[in-house]
Amino acid sequence: MSQTILSIVMFILTLALCPLLPGIVNRVKARCAGRTGQPLLQKYYDLGKLVRKDVVYSTTATWIFRACPVAVLGGALAAALTPFGRGGALVSFQGDFLIWAGALTLARLFMILAALDAGSAFTGMGASREAWFAVLAEPAIFLAMAALAVISHQFSMTGFFLALTPETTSRHFMALLFAALALFVVSLAENARIPVDDPTTHLELTMIHEAMILDHSGPDLAIIEYGAALKLWVMASLAVGAAVPVDIGSWWLDAGCFLVGLFVFAVLLGIVESVMARLKLNRVPQFLVGAAVLAAISVILVARSA
Q1: From CA 7, how far away is CA 291, in angstroms rounded?
Q2: The CA-based dihedral angle spanning residues 171, 174, 178, 181, taken in that order and rounded to the nearest 10 degrees
Q3: From CA 270, how far away is CA 188, in angstroms rounded?
Q4: Count of alpha carbons within 13 Å of 28, Cβ hemisphere only?
Q5: Which of these, 96, 86, 291, lies nearest to 180 by C-alpha position?
Q6: How does DSSP assign 198-242, residue by residue?
């Protein structure tokens, strides 16, 4: 199978399976708590129910609020061009990781503006926290990307992962491990997971992501929720790609191992959320700075072995 066809297949699987990751996380959390938990396909049911509902807009909302779901989904789709495993990306060029980060930033910007546009004190409070934590998370992402760029001698995301041969992986094992840990920690913040945020809370004083989407409803909320699931898949793919650079030689075995790695990521995420409590807001910056330190250690290790 050609590289292009494999990339198309992985992209389609991404769009179809991304709502499954939150279901795995919730099921693991339920099992750790001794409960049966929701069905694995609960996110699909929720999205279908939201699509059938009506949309209600605030009287203070402008076109920014209505454009938010489209911007969120568009940013997530653009970021989903990330190479998944050995498949490579549908669109790849030098410096494409900057476009990847910019797409996610644009989606976040519209969410923040829409939260302010709604005219609610709670949504504005969530927007300010989202902007604050995003600034702290971005250095870790770019430092991890820098480590991958130095290891692979490439400046495209496809080049990052295609260059991770068994020899390269064994040589830079610790650097890749620290980069993967940094991306895992950042994934918790970027996807509003514990210990940074709690996606199941409805206590206004502690909400971040949920506070920003309080005024969204119906199909608009379904689009935002789907975009969040797609973003979780994308962030997980980066961590898995750095931690488990599988190169068996067969495209379907490589793709299968990559999908298994994503599901293992969801299981680990569920375990983390089961054994940890939500951090105080003044502790979150320290948590994110720790992720940047992990990524910086990765860069240092790569520089020393070069």
Answers
A1: 30
A2: 100
A3: 11
A4: 19
A5: 291
A6: -TT---TTT-SHHHHTTT--HHHHHHHHHHHHHHHHHHHHHHHHH
Whole-angstrom CA distances from 231 to 14, 34, 81, 295, 302 are: 10, 29, 11, 20, 28
Backbone φ and ψ of 125, nearest 5°? -65, -45
Helix, strand, coil percentages (3-state) for the chain, rounded to 5, are 75, 0, 25
Q: How far apart are CA 210 and CA 29, in angstroms?
A: 19
Are the beta carbons of 233 and 17 closer than 8 angstroms?
Answer: yes
Q: What is the dihedral of CA 262, 266, 271, 272, to 10 degrees?
A: 90
Answer whether 61's CB lies under 8 Å from 117's CB: yes
The two tokens of residue 109 are: 């910007």
| CA trace torsion 245, 169, 179, 301 (10° rounding) | -170
DSSP character at residue 197: -
| Burial profile 12-35: b = 16 or more Cβ within 10 angstroms, e = fewer | ebbeeebbbbbbbbbbbbeeeeee
Tens digit of pLDDT per residue, the chain (306 long)?
Answer: 566 777 888 888 899 999 999 999 999 999 998 888 889 999 999 999 999 999 998 888 899 999 999 999 999 998 888 776 666 677 888 888 888 999 999 999 999 999 999 888 888 888 988 999 999 999 999 999 999 999 988 888 888 888 887 788 888 989 999 999 999 999 999 988 888 888 776 666 667 888 888 889 999 999 999 999 999 999 998 888 888 776 666 677 777 888 888 999 999 999 999 998 888 888 999 999 999 999 999 999 998 876
- Return the structure tokens found at 221: 């909320």
Task: Count Cβ atoms below 10 Å from residue 268 Cβ, excluding itself.
Answer: 15
CA 204 and chain centroid, separation: 23
Asked if 302 and 175 count as a contact pair (C-beta separation under 8 A), the reply is yes
Give the tokens for residue 159. 């080049």
